[in-house]
């Protein structure tokens, strides 16, 4: 959804091969004949897959990389082809197959030097599928877990550095979902349920862009629930941390109108 990875930065093993031409058409298109079983030597087959990828036909490239493993499962080329298949599916935006291919690579080669990239591809594939905050956020949670896994396993890698940047965006997205639900509860007059959602933002996502509004909404909900001393506390936290924000100005006005004389213990 947010950003796509550059093929240049991830075509790790691709430079060392030269590949096959199945009975394919000469253009970038491809039909069933392109991936029909024709026994070929592994280098020719791999090279053909790489050629298709370079020419922009990622779906056919992925199928041909899969064919490398199918025809030559015990060749060193098979390991390269597994990861290149995952990358090709990613370029084709077939994220489910990307995840399947990368997970297969990891199940067979868990300690391989390219394992960090396989984990990264899985995380990217979930990340690319994040939907807007009005929809179910299961994929967002999977993206969060996968990005955290990359950062945990390979903290000093270039993949972890990018994962940390994306984690900030994912957390902001999840906080946005909590805010969306909380505002819905407020509009419905379900103030306690709204309070819980806004408190979740402060407890779990306090460094996100939604924190100032969450504190304002907590001020608002506390007044509606009849606890003005709590409203003043939230407004004070908002003023201390975001003194120049519009949310503090609104919270200040709200407290002045409805809780100015209340003493906070």
Distance between the termini: 47 Å
Class of the domain at 1-129, according to the CATH hierarchy?
Answer: Mainly Alpha
CATH topology heading of the domain at 1-129: Serine Threonine Protein Phosphatase 5, Tetratricopeptide repeat
CATH architecture level-2 label of the domain at 1-129: Alpha Horseshoe
Mean pLDDT: 86
β-strand number: 0
Instruction: List SSEs in N-to-C order.
Output: HHHHHHHHHHHH
Largest sheet, in brief, is: none
Helix/strand/pairing category: mainly alpha
Q: Estimate the helix proportion, in percent.
A: 55-70%
Rg from alpha-carbon coordinates: 26 Å
Strand content bin? under 5%
Classified in CATH, the superfamily of the domain at 1-129 is: Tetratricopeptide repeat domain
Note down, in words, how this protein is organized.
It is a single chain. The protein is mostly helical and 265 residues long. The protein has a domain at 1-129: Alpha Horseshoe (Serine Threonine Protein Phosphatase 5, Tetratricopeptide repeat). It is built from 12 helices and no strands. The protein has helices at 7-10, 42-54, 58-71, 76-91, 95-108, 115-127, 138-153, 158-187, 191-204, 211-224, 228-241, 246-258. Helix 8 packs parallel to helix 10. The protein starts with 6 loop residues before the first helix and ends in a 7-residue tail after the last helix. Residues 3-32 have low confidence and may be disordered.
Furnish the topology, listing elements before pairings.
Blueprint: H1 7-10, H2 42-54, H3 58-71, H4 76-91, H5 95-108, H6 115-127, H7 138-153, H8 158-187, H9 191-204, H10 211-224, H11 228-241, H12 246-258
